[in-house]
Amino acid sequence: MSTRTAERAAPPAARRRSPLGFLRGRSLHIYTWLVIAWLLLPICVMILFGFNDTQSRYNTKWQGFTFKWYGELFAIDELTTALINSLLIALLTMLIAGTLGTLIGLALGRYRFRGAGPLNLVMFAAIACAEIVMGASLLSMFVTLSAPLGFWTILIAHVMFSVSFVAVTVRARVLTLDPALEEAARDLGAGPLTTFRLVTFPMIFPGVMAGSLLAFALSIDDFVITNFTAGGTVTFPLWIWGSTRVGTPPQVNVMGTLIFAVGVLLAIGLRLIARRRAA
């Protein structure tokens, strides 16, 4: 009798897995969900305390449920200004770093040229470099050039450390492209710009969008490099750090919740667009 026949002939109790065997088979899934729950726990606490009916700036003790902080979202002028600064810097970083990083990633993924190896090394070194090292070096550069610290130095710093992430993301996408599609477009009479606009760019667009959104997220989230290069300009993370001495108001939780919700919606939207393109 073969092994498969014996397994079929065995009674259901013999084929039933033991609880220990079931846990051993599912251990990786359980571990993954535990890690995800651990990562989401601070976000859930932040969202929850955005509805806390606290009577003081110290939003650390639950005192009841309310929606009033959503109605008073912009009641603190300094916090609103800091949020606007962060959003504006992040948007400009996304556009500038997205453009520069796309061109660099396209060049590294498509062409062979002298200096491509050192350029790759510089890109990955910028990603692996500690933020405190990059922040101190950028501060030294601005001081040496006698550049006044403020909004524009923050923007330059954010573009400099985020362009590498965009370039690496786009390069990875470019390496997967089929050159025959571009050759077919040129055979049909399309020029270089038309080929890029109608063939190449639509194919690398998911990588461009992912890299640009990553640059946006890194910019709006950054504290260390911003703290070195901010001068008198206050961003959202810097304001939160300064407010911990006197108490963090619930509006901070509400703004963080809204930023998180927008990020989730963008991720879902990009996923749906990618699935529609693949179909």
TrEMBL record:
Instruction: Say yes or no: keyword Repressor present.
Output: no
**What subcellular locations does the record give?**
Cell membrane
Task: Please report the stretch or stretches of sequence annotated as the ABC transmembrane type-1 domain.
Answer: 83-270
- For whether the record's keyword set contains Transport, the answer is yes
Q: Which residues cross the membrane?
A: 30-51, 87-109, 121-143, 149-170, 198-220, 254-274
Q: How does it sit in the membrane?
A: Multi-pass membrane protein
| Keywords for the protein's UniProt record, in alphabetical order | Cell membrane, Membrane, Transmembrane, Transmembrane helix, Transport
Q: What CDD domains would the database entry show?
A: TM_PBP2 (cd06261)
Chief subcellular location equals: membrane
Q: Which family does it belong to?
A: Belongs to the binding-protein-dependent transport system permease family. CysTW subfamily.
> What name does the UniProt record give this protein?
ABC transporter permease
Q: Which organism is it from?
A: Actinomadura alba
Taxonomy of the source species: Bacteria, Bacillati, Actinomycetota, Actinomycetes, Streptosporangiales
